[in-house]
Amino acid sequence: MLFLDDSELDKLYPARLVVAASGVIEVAGPSFRRLLSRDIAGAHFDDVFRLTPRRRGGAETFEEGAFTTPLKIVTRGAAPLHFRGAVVETHGRRHLLLSGVPDGSAASERFRYGDFSPTDGAIDLLLAMQAHSASLDDARHLSEQLVEARAAEAASVAKSRFLASMSHELRTPLNAIIGFTEIVIDDLAEAGVEGSTEDLARVLRAATHLLALVNDVLDLAKIEAGKMTVRPEAMDFAEVVSDVAGTLGPLARRAGNRLEVELQAPTLPGFSDENRIRQCLINLIGNALKFTSDGKVTATLAVETVHAREEIVIRVTDTGIGMSPEQVDRLFRPFVQATTDIAASFGGTGLGLVITQESARLLGGSVSVESTLGVGSTFTLRAPRWMESNAEAEIPQDSAWVVA
Amino acid sequence: MYGMIHRAARTMCIEVLGEAAWAELAASAGFNESDFLSAQVYPDGRTMALVTAIAAKANLTTDQTLEAFGRFWITFADKSAYGPVMRMNGDTLAEFLSNLDRMHDTIQRVMTDTRMPSFHVEAASAAHIDVLYQSERTGLEPFVCGLLQGLMARFGDTGEITHAPAPDGVRFRIAMAAAQAA
Questions:
Q1: Which residues of B touch A126 (CB under 8 A)?
Q2: A239: CB partners within 8 A, 6+ apart
Q3: SS3 string of chain A?
Q4: What is the CATH number of domain A233-391?
Q5: Spatial CA neighbour of A60 closest among A87, A29, A85
Q6: If you average pLDDT over residues A67-83, what whole number do you get?
Q7: Residues of chain B neighbouring A149 (CB-CB closer than 8 A)
Q8: Nearest by CB to B87, which of A109, A127, A137?
Q9: Which of A49, A155, A227, A269 is the most exposed, having the fewest neighbouring CB atoms within 10 Å of its CB?
């Protein structure tokens, strides 16, 4: 027969009691001494603990075999602690061999590892509950994110469809207005009628401006829907830069600006999407002219080799109003111009740079900016001189809302 | 290592460097929400990639970052769902360290893929505590130093931590400041 002395029993069952037949506690294990901050030896069991569920009867309650289910006791007073165990009678002593029952409540946080028998799995269970609770929190968080992402995606698709269809509905009558206004202006000029052509010219300029804005919106809708594509072809970068500068010459002169072009070579053949390059340049030079008056805008074209790849580098430098670092931070966000004052003073949708940036990305390049408030800005467009020929991708025509 | 470590590293980065720095770091190092599941066990290489990225962002060495992370881990774990388990581990530094193996053993039972280190308190007195640290992993001594510093702060202790390689692991000595002064 195995006999254990009190110190050995303390190690095995830190939360143990020896209770006399009178109900007086003869021995309390180290856990009770720590948890109750006093030695309860000599106190009556009923003054310190109560049985749960409650039972009639006195100390005889603890006779061995009286509990067909585990013995359960609770400390009296606020924030009770729960213990579970069994009654064992040996060598004339009545032992209550107990274990704490941590339940995650603030009260049970008073338990320490040392309060549990090394063979007690209660803490394993508690930790498992907490780990599973943390996993459930993760799962809940992820599923909420998924629902939000899907809702945002659906809203984005709906918005892009709406913008695309609205842009189409707007462009058709606008093209009619522009076309027929041009015809009327020509007819009046041929007929030698004077006086009305200037007003019609204003109508034409306003309609053309509106068409450009609608085209911007359409481009953004394509970008957001992932439908913006590029069609590389053999082209001459120098020719495109000169051509765009020539087109924008009248705009430069109207604001008293000098528009200069500096080409590394008179011709610079390459393989890229000419329309996208042209669109980028119109946006960059157009912006530079818009924010500069009685100054200078310079477009330079050069070729640089970066990581064994030839890149065309187009820099558009102006002596305009420039931007603060905070304004530069907001620059490439859709519908956001550097300041609301700028939107009011200079007009525009705030989409041009977003479209330019996305176009550059599709070309395999980038757009960057350096600017000093009150001094001017330099926008740099980089793109591979020779795009891969398989970069071409068609816009899916079976898509009901694509209106390219 | 398990996802809670990743979560702690992310939280530390956000608290110290800010949300924007974290977003930039996560995008450039390729970390997303699936790298931060609490009960998921991730390859050590992934964890070290995270620590290295934070070190680069904070302009610190990897060892400095590990040490700072060790200190942060203690407060993070205290505030986490495992806070109650942390509190059950003991009311003094020596008691806490003595129960660490049991806590790690418990965690291992729940997360069977984890590989927990061992901290064996070889000697504990008012003057110093000697802890033998054993792990399958190498190079994490700065992290352990940080953990011990965090624990000392948790219990309001001050002192000096030194460590030296031992045949069976790495031996850490915590020289308690009050005892040194006495």
A1: 84-85
A2: A267
A3: CCCCCHHHHHHHCCEEEEECCCCEEEEECHHHHHHCCCCCCCCEHHHHEEECCCCCCCHHHHCCCCCCCCEEEEECCCCCCEEEEEEEEECCEEEEEEEECCCCCCHHHHCCHHHCCCCCCHHHHHHHHHHHHHHHHHHHHHHHHHHHHHHHHHHHHHHHHHHHHHHHHHHHHHHHHHHHHHHHHHHHHHHCCCCCHHHHHHHHHHHHHHHHHHHHHHHHHHHHCCCCCCCCEEEEHHHHHHHHHHHHHHHHHHCCCEEEEEECCCCCEEEECHHHHHHHHHHHHHHHHHCCCCCEEEEEEEEEEECCEEEEEEEEEECCCCCCHHHHHCCCCCCCCCCHHHHHHHCCCCCHHHHHHHHHHHCCCEEEEEEECCCEEEEEEEEECECCHHHCCCCCCCCCCCCC
A4: 3.30.565.10
A5: A87
A6: 86
A7: none
A8: A109
A9: A155
- List the single residue in B80, B90, B110 with the smallest CB-CB distance to A127: B110
A120, A105 Cβ separation under 8 angstroms: no
Residue A400: band (very low, low, confident or very high) from pLDDT cuts 50, 70, 90? very low
Say if the Cβ atoms of B33 and A145 lie within 8 Å: yes
* Residue to test with chain B: of A119, A127, A140, most B Cβ within 10 A: A127
Residue-wise pLDDT for A217-246, tens only, equals 777 777 776 777 788 999 999 999 998 998
- Taking an 8 Å cut-off on Cβ atoms, the answer to whether A128 and B39 are in contact is no
CB-closest option in A114, A130, A135 to B85:
A130
Flag if A112 and B106 touch (Cβ within 8 Å): no
A97-111, A233-247, A367-381, B143-157: segment of lowest average pLDDT: A97-111
Contact B4 A134 (CB under 8 A): yes
Nearest Cα neighbor of A40 from A24, A22, A61, A21 is A24
The question of ipTM being above 0.85 is answered as: no
Residue with tokens 């830190």: A14
The fold for domain B89-181 equals H-NOX domain (3.90.1520)
CATH 3.90.1520.10, chain B: domain bounds: 89-181
Selected from 3.30.450.260, 3.10.20.30, 1.10.220.30, 1.10.760.10, the CATH number assigned to the domain covering A6-120 reads 3.30.450.260
Tokens coding A382: 């980089």
CB distance B13 to B21 below 8 Å: yes
A317-335 per-position pLDDT tens digit: 999 999 888 888 777 766 5
What pLDDT, on the 0 to 100 scale, is given for residue A349?
Answer: 58
Q: How close is the nearest chain B Cα to the Cα of A10, in Å?
A: 17
Q: Angle at CA A48, nearest 5°, toward A42 and A51?
A: 120
Query: Which two three-digit tokens encode residue B125?
Result: 């007195």
Task: Report the predicted TM-score, pTM, of the whole model to 2 decimal places.
Answer: 0.57
